[in-house]
């Protein structure tokens, strides 16, 4: 079976626990849809609120990652054993607010009441939607430092007098 993509819904205070613990679980710790997840499946955490039940609205994806566990497992004390899968979350994520993404996502496009499908606490995503969410939460790479920019302008990574393509002479050097 191929790689699948999932969005799970939690308030931010619970999502932080999942991220810190390196796992995913759905509301109430149920087995579904974790029993459908496989290694390398993509998972996005979406937070409609900061806290449950009446917390301040957030409406943002807060993390994305890939499933590591081949099967779900139960964790916790007797009587309260939620089902989980281990997930490798992005090392440093930012909030990906839903409003600027709504017209791009298949999940939300052409649906005024798209939030209704999130009521079970999870939904399967298309690959495209997963990639949009993943890009939204991934922090951009830092800008290169002034030192690096000067080094590239002065001689590139190949040094002064050496052309990038391996030829010397009057040919211009390309700096990529």
Write up what this structure looks like.
By secondary structure, the protein is an alpha+beta fold. The chain folds into two domains: 5-137, ph1033 like fold (Roll); 144-176, no CATH class. Helices cover 18% and strands 23% of the residues. It is built from three helices and eight strands; from the N terminus they run βαβββββββαα. It has helices at residues 12-21, 127-137, 146-155, and strands at residues 5-9, 23-24, 42-49, 57-67, 73-74, 83-89, 96-97, 122-125. Strands 1, 2, 3, 4, 5, 6, 7 and 8 form an eight-stranded mixed β-sheet that branches. The two termini are 40 Å apart. The relative contact order is 0.17. The mean pLDDT is 87. This is EVE domain-containing protein.
Structural class: alpha+beta
The N- to C-terminal Cα distance equals 40 Å
Shape-level CATH architecture of the largest domain: Roll
Low-confidence segments, given as residue ranges, are none
The average pLDDT score comes to 87
Sheet of most strands: 8 strands, mixed
Helix count?
3
Shape: globular
The tally of structural domains comes to 2
Radius of gyration: 22 Å
Number of strands: 8
Q: How much helix, percentage-wise, in residues?
A: 10-25%
Q: Tell me the strand percentage band.
A: 15-25%
CATH-defined superfamily of the largest domain = ph1033 like domains
Organism: Gulosibacter chungangensis
Protein name: EVE domain-containing protein
InterPro entries: PUA-like_sf (IPR015947)
